[in-house]
């Protein structure tokens, strides 16, 4: 005889989609893109493969949805603090919180089957970010407006330097860089390159 504690309630709509995406994310972290299967996600979310197939046209789309969901939970936008150094350190803290997500993205890029869907990192970036604001560029624009930095010194390799450093560290070490290293990037490398005067 079933008791009220053994009766399962069926999830629908947004609740079901959220459960599927959370399971897909856990599978991506656990097994990487190569080990991600629609069957395992369906089983973990207590639903059927056909339910997944109605929402996502394959494993690549589901993986992207899971990553997008995680990115939405960790916004990179830093409020105007009135000080470039403070804002850069806060930005790097926020990017560091995304180390697992960045690792999952690199896992996608290194998978041959996935790269048939998204041939370049730029295509993947567009699929993940859409029209999201470039938070680092916004921080630098505000600093230029406050005359803390010389905008003429923000040539393309310099403007993206902090993003390049943190992505490289996460890729090579599979972890976020320590706080003191992030501070050294800002104080010893980046700020001397862009300051006015």
Summarize the structure.
With 197 residues, the chain is an all-alpha fold.
Q: Would you mind describing this structure in some detail?
A:
69% of the residues lie in helices and 0% in strands. It is mainly alpha-helical and 197 residues long. The chain folds into 2 domains: 11-73, Homeodomain-like (Arc Repressor Mutant, subunit A, Orthogonal Bundle), CATH 1.10.10.60; 75-197, Tetracycline Repressor, domain 2 (Orthogonal Bundle). Helix 1 crosses helix 2 and helix 5 (84-96) crosses helix 12. The radius of gyration is 20 Å and the shape is elongated. The termini are far apart. Residues 1-7 have low confidence and may be disordered.
Question: What descriptors fit this protein?
Answer:
disordered N terminus, 69% helix, 197 residues, 12 helices, 2 domains, single chain, mainly alpha, elongated, Tetracycline Repressor, domain 2, Arc Repressor Mutant, subunit A
